[in-house]
Amino acid sequence: MRGMFAASLLSILSVVVPGAAADPLDITDTSGAVEADRRARDDAEDRLLGAPTEDLFEVERRGGYSPLSGWRDGVWVLVEPKLHLSLGDGVPDNNGGEEEPGGLTPQLSAMGVLVAGPFEIRATPWIRTGFVNAGGQGVAGRVDVKDLWAGVRAGGLSVGFGREDRWLGPSRHGSLTLSDNAIPPWLGGVSGEGHLPWVLSKLGRLRGELDVGWLGEPRGDVTNPGLMVGDVRWLPVPELEIGVTRMTIFGGEDRPPVDFGQLLLPTEPHIYDDPDQLLPDQDELAALDFRLCLPLHHWLASIPIQHVEAYWQYGGEDVIARKLGPIPYPSLAGVANIYGGEVTAGPISANVEYSRLMDDTFRWYVGHRVYHEGFTQDQRPLGNPGGTDSETIWGRLGWTAGPEGPVYGLRAALWADRTHRVGVIESRNDKVFTLETEETRWRAGAEVSIATPPGPAPRGRLSGGYTLEHISGEDFVPGADRFAHRAWLSWSVDIAGGRPFGASQAPDGV
Hints:
Blueprint: H1 2-13, H2 33-42, H3 56-61, E1 75-88, E2 104-116, E3 119-131, E4 139-154, E5 157-163, E6 186-195, E7 205-214, E8 226-237, E9 240-250, H4 260-264, E10 282-294, H5 296-299, E11 307-317, E12 319-324, E13 327-332, E14 335-345, E15 348-357, E16 376-377, E17 380-381, E18 390-401, E19 410-421, E20 424-428, E21 431-434, E22 439-452, E23 460-472, E24 482-493, E25 499-500
Antiparallel strand pairs: 1-2, 1-24, 1-25, 2-3, 3-4, 4-5, 5-6, 6-7, 7-8, 8-9, 9-10, 10-11, 11-14, 12-13, 14-15, 15-18, 16-17, 18-19, 19-22, 20-21, 22-23, 23-24
């Protein structure tokens, strides 16, 4: 059964395809994506949500607030500076790979967007200084560009190249495939979303994407390995979304040319009798997800609950070859699951999510023959922050107040999670050898964010939060127990939102 599922899944993704994305519940969002996605769930809108986005064009197209409103045909610029300050030794997850080293970490960034008709260039340069914790020495500084993307958008089609925070799948705390937990990879490709023409439109809304690029951060296995990301989403009815995602690592410096046919459909995924690792190799990861959302208040106005949502993501890390008679086909191994749900009632939302990546034999994200650092950047998984051989349970209680849209809105949240990790040494002869000590991490946090109206200062958003955590058996070392904390404060302002070159004011409604 698993083999038949894997064969059909990989066959579909071999011929189709990203949407930009950040954390789906990011309280610092300034684009209106958070409110737009909430309304889509409350009102059973015809909208795919498994590829959430902060891209301004996408937010506007989905019906949310956007500084781009009214300027689709002009040439304009958006500049949004941001000051971020963190204090403490806690390491955040889902932060674009930024671990904020040091006891005090100030960071200054500026998102800039230049649009001319369908052409768009977007970049977020930043500079950060980390003052090392007590007991350490020195200052850790870095200058980089977080998001850098250039391309063309027309209707539901997009073609471009760059790197940007991504999120694929219905989960809120950690996707099996791609999230903003690590530094985003460089990718270029095409995506499209909409209804098929004529009578086929009754099939529902479809979205497909295919991207190819590389993992550019320093690695200990293969330098600059290639990465292919494919994602397909189907909304047969507004209440149900089905998604399939596939990711493949291939090639890289000093590696032999990839077999294009095997890249599309890996019927011979494992290489044998090659001790010097001279033959081409690749690593596969794939997942299938389902999201069911019931807009109760939309159906029955007397019910105080806006919507109830449940989702499941099932995936496999590594591909093994099987045969159906004489016909070879690929099958997934290393099974993992994410289960979650959300309930909203008025301004209140509640979330719970459980992930389990505990196959042990087939290691999630890491451990493959040639690409043993696998689907990671700077040793952070591209997907679930718990990483390999882990299980995590997470809960969140959120509150949103203020008028529709991000302007003048207040967001607050309380959350907690527990992550349990096992230190696997190796798997031999169907036996798994693990370290004696296991690692357990408990965390609890509070966040608040308020949109500041225009006045003496430009319109913007002020956000802050605090996290306290306790780690036992850290890095699987007996007795390595400690507390850690992190406090942070961010302020972003919109100094040129929605104003085309030469205009003195934005149009009504912006």
